[in-house]
Amino acid sequence: MKQFFIMLALVAGAITANAQETAQSQPSTGDLYSGLTRKIEYDRMIPPYGIEVSFNKTVHIIFPAAVRYVDLGSANIIAGKADGAENVIRVKAAVQGFERETNFSVITDEGSFYSFNVKYADEPEKLNIEMKDFIHDGEAVNRPNNSLDIYFNDLGNESPKVVNLIMKSIYQSDKKEIKHIGSKRFGIQLLLKGIYTYNDFLYFHIQTKNASQVPFDMDFIRIKIVDKKVAKRTAIQEQVIFPVRAYRYNIRIPGKKSGRTVFALPKFTVPDGKHLIVELYEKNGGRHQRFVVENEDITRAKVIDDLKVK
């Protein structure tokens, strides 16, 4: 009986080895699985780009927007954001001379998806790679609309690509739709150039001018809804509105220079008896700015109906 089980185990091992050899020599075509399936055609695939990595050198990949997600195909490679940069990924081999090809994927803040196949090389040919035109490289096999299928919780049903295009369009047009809202103190001027609306979001176009010789370092900007009149000894009730995206956010305005930023905010209106306050705080300084936006200014927001992006 013992010999029978030994023989059975040997036969099972031989069958398994033979199946593995057959699977390697005849890879799946992707059109036959257990159950009812449909073959994925090549026009549904996002073509990956090939890169080489080394154990002794680091490959840097620069993306057009902040990186939100990275997934590695195996432990043979390591990757992470470059210190102080949200849109730069550094990649290198974790195992010297690994033989099997692996891959990794990246999703950026604007909703673009990037795919890479990775192999080992002692001397990688390309160490610094810019992916700015990856989505719109014009190749027939690369479908630009793939990036529109990625959504984030903070944007709800709105495409990150559309939000980014709207902010870019507002920034490039640089129109002064509003002329009566702003503040000016200590040589710093904060202006609200326009309020725009599209679907479920408002877009604030804000400009900061520095007429002094001393650089203005921004600490943070706060947007909140507060009561117009607050009785003495009464707690101030305020509702903070957090921007979900910012285009060209300037953290420093040099002397005699100016900067502009477009903020995307969830759509809102201001109740009676309240108004919206925008505050800009200087880091390690006291040249803070503050202006008030009334509800009628928000309800007169310009509707985005034609995007013009160069």
Short description:
The protein has 310 residues and is mainly β.
Give the radius of gyration: 27 Å
Q: Indicate the mean pLDDT.
A: 83
End-to-end Cα distance, whole Å, is 80 Å
How much helix is in the residues?
10-25%
Strand content is 35-45%
Account of the protein in words:
With 310 residues, this protein is mainly β. The chain contains three helices and 19 strands. The protein has helices at 2-25, 160-173, 295-299, and strands at residues 49-53, 59-62, 67-72, 77-81, 88-93, 102-108, 113-120, 128-130, 182-185, 188-198, 201-210, 216-227, 238-241, 245-247, 252-253, 258-266, 274-282, 289-293, 302-303. Strands 9, 10, 11, 14, 16 and 19 form a six-stranded mixed sheet that branches. Strands 12, 13, 15, 17 and 18 form a five-stranded antiparallel sheet that branches. Strands 1-7-6-3 form a four-stranded mixed sheet, with no helix packed on it. The protein starts with a helix and ends in a 7-residue tail after the last strand. The model is unreliable at 134-148 (pLDDT under 50).
